[in-house]
Amino acid sequence: MVRGVLSGAAVALAWSTACAALPARADGPDPETTPAAVTPGETQQQLDQLNQRLSEADAALTRAEAELTAAETALAAARKERQRAEVDDQVLAAAVAQAESTLAATRAAVSLGRQNLRREQQVAGAVVRQTTQQDTPLLGVAALVTNLTTGDVNEQVQWSTTLFGTTQTRMDALRTVQSQVELAQQAQETARARVDEAKRAASTHLTETRGAEASATALAAELSARVRAALEARSQFEAQLAQEYRRQDALRSEASSVEDKIRARMALLSGEEWAGSPASGALPLPVSGPLTSPFGMRLHPVTHDWSLHDGTDFGAACGTPIRAPRAGVVVEEYFNAGYGNRLILDHGIVDGHFLTTGYNHAERYLVRVGDRVSAGQVIGYVGSTGYSTGCHLHLMAWQDGRVVDPMARWF
Predict the structure, then answer these.
(1) How many domains is the chain partitioned into structurally?
(2) Domain match, 159 and 296 both
(3) Structural domain boundaries, residue 321
(4) Which of 14, 30, 268, 349 is most buried, judging by how many CB atoms fall within 10 Å of its CB?
């Protein structure tokens, strides 16, 4: 499980554990200088920066999830609006179809009425013509020269009058029907125009809602991708952070193991050996190259976190010879995931202190455990093995079993 933000108690515990790992002073003279060590403030700073990166990843994920939630809410609203628009469009389409059906029936009725009206007008015209032809001044003469009686003439006149009146009544009724049909037709045309306008508005609204839904869908997809990316980034960072904690634990364990072994060797020294320490000046550098990273707290080039850099780096090309700065015995030579190929030399008592030097990230070494080396002897070649970003030598020094800044006194 990845460690989250550490509490003050956890920091204090980590610091007390680190202090407990530091070796007790071996028998011999007091050191003239106090070896450098990690302070509680530096430990807290390192842990704060490690956990800040995880907090930033959490914040980015929270923001992306909130934006996605808002986008999904907007998308749901857009879909509902689009569904309502589709229902409105269907209802109005049915209304238009009904209006068109009614209008077609009305037009058929109007057409039939007009045909009937023309037929009745023709009949009435014939009657009028017949009546007009019979209703002339010659009618009396005709009565005198024909066998028509007065009763016949009266009957014919009555018949004409009745026929004309009936026809006129039918024509008036037809005209009334025609007027009603025309009014109904006008009302239907008006209704249809309104329905058409409503349908156009509904169609426009439907198009707009579909566009809004498409935009909301695209935004939701984009934010979903951002959330997935944030989750992936956070997952990767958690894995990196867990790996970094494991690496730091391994380095602390490695450092503690090396110091324990040095103290064990120191314990084997006799009082005469401590008293007979020879004087010595500054040791020559083991490689030719610029100092690229000093001992102390620094921003790590890989993790970008502040941590203790427990040695001094020299920017030498791969294959550059590494020379022993002083005669000594090879006490360790192995591979470590963090330090790469490493080699450790005991130099015995120097200026009243038990001096040990270490060489890390080498391409390879030419000596093995138990070998005695002389000052200036080539013991290996610079490389970039282990937790390294490029060819260099990571030089370390232990004074009386405690890691110190190599350049502060010995080189």
Answers:
(1) 2
(2) no
(3) 277-411
(4) 349
Buried b (16+ CB within 10 A) or exposed e, 47-74: bebbeeebeebeebbeebeebbeebeeb
What are the CA-CA distances from residue 155 to residues 132, 147, 149, 164 (Å)? 16, 14, 10, 14
Percent of the chain at pLDDT exceeding 70 = 71
Residue 322 resides in a domain = yes
Tell me if 300 is assigned to some domain.
yes
For residue 29, pLDDT beyond 50: no
> Could you tell me if residue 23 is inside a domain?
no
Q: What's 305's domain CATH number?
A: 2.70.70.10
The answer to the question of residue 162 being in a domain is: yes
Q: Are residues 284 and 207 in the same domain?
A: no
CATH code, 181? 1.10.287
pLDDT at residue 35 is higher than 70: no
Q: 3-state SS string over the chain? A: CCCCCCCHHHHHHHHHHHHHHCCCCCCCCCCCCCCCCCCHHHHHHHHHHHHHHHHHHHHHHHHHHHHHHHHHHHHHHHHHHHHHHHHHHHHHHHHHHHHHHHHHHHHHHHHHHHHHHHHHHHHHHHHHHHHHHHCCCHHHHHHHHCCCCHHHHHHHHHHHHHHHHHHHHHHHHHHHHHHHHHHHHHHHHHHHHHHHHHHHHHHHHHHHHHHHHHHHHHHHHHHHHHHHHHHHHHHHHHHHHHHHHHHHHHHHHHHHHHHHHHHHHHHCCCHHHHHCCCCCCCCCCCCCCCEEECCEEEECCCCCCEEEECCEEECCCCCCEEECCCCEEEEEEEEECCCEEEEEEEEEEECCEEEEEEEECCCEECCCCCCEECCCCEEEECECCCCCCCCEEEEEEEECCEEECHHHHCC
Structure tokens given for 340: 């790469």
- 205 with 286, same domain: the answer is no
Per-residue pLDDT reduced to its tens digit, 147-170: 555 565 566 556 556 666 666 776
Examine the domain organization and report whether 219 and 293 are in the same domain. Answer: no
Domain check: are 223 and 369 in the same one? no
Q: How many whole angstroms separate alpha carbon 1 and alpha carbon 357?
A: 36
**Judgement on whether residues 190 and 301 belong to the same structural domain of the protein:** no
The verdict on 365 and 218 lying in the same domain is no
Residue 326 and residue 185 share a domain? no
